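SAMPLE LOG
Freezer: B-3
Tube label: C17
Construct: single chain, 367 aa
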Amino acid sequence: MSGSVCRWGILSAAGIARKNWQAIKYAGNGCLTAVASRSLEKAQAFIADCERFVPLETRPAACGSYDELLKRADVDAVYVPLPTGMRKEWVIKAAEAGKHVLAEKPVGCDTAEVEAMLDACRRNNVQFMDGVMFMHSGRLDRLREVLDDGGSVGRLRRIASQFSFAGPEEFHQANIRAHSGLEPLGCLGDLGWYNIRFTLWVMKYVMPTQVTGRLLSASGRPDSPDSVPMEFSAELLFPEGVSASFYCSFLTENQQWANVSGSKGFVHLRDFVLPFYGGEAGFDVTNAVLDVRGSDFNMHDRTRRVSSYEYSNNYADSQETKLFRRFGELVLSGRPDPFWGEIAWKTQRVLDACLQSARQDGRPVSL
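STRUCTURE (predicted):
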């Protein structure tokens, strides 16, 4: 450990790591000291390209292997955006090397893999967290206030969400998310993870009692050993009559909305995963009123906007920067918080049950 700074290493030159390069810089309590790829040349090229857009005070070291980075004494924590099919091995190796772990999602190929990773982190007293950025937005604090105020939504009844994008032809031909050996969970892991996490967050992490899943479309790139989910939907049943649904897809154009409905009103987020570009992360609260006067039936819109003012796209108050800042605080405190591993396990457990149901032609699965 180096005083008040969490020293980061990145395992892989994945595209999402370019975004988080900048988040580490603006976190205020971290610095990037090393980047590893499968070859020294790839690591050097990644660093050079990122430096063109976001130069750092000190240029990170390039490592020609992941093992080389894990041996470095100047790395306290690693960000692991490796493909899901490879993640378990390297998360465990990182934990055994004494490195704190921020892992991309889905965390593992199944719940057993996640349990193995969390066990390794516990044994070695290192922090584990997954890379769900919206968990660190100030918007969630505002949303919780509204959900709990008793009048805006009332008694919770229904949660619905959709996260999708239409992958171009090159995505289906070459992207790792279309390869069963690299990303076996396809759109369910890449996108559905967010739907499930948002639903669990709304429910304060009470688990569903039963889920049903439907694999609506599956395919793979030409060299994929098997097909992966391309379009998926699910229904979740919770205690006290609350239900939830979600849809995720690599075939339907950009949508990332969520709706939470209750006995008195509903809230709607148009951009629950990645806030639309600008200085506001907000949502609408609607308490519509039907006014009947004789033969006139008038539905009155009663909608108000609730916002957290934070700038999107990696700036100091953005959700991705807050993620790295929060992780750095936990590392520097010397007291790992098991909460983050627990909610990753719950998310994976629900995901597995949805997939299990889909493989059984939509038969309900009890948790």
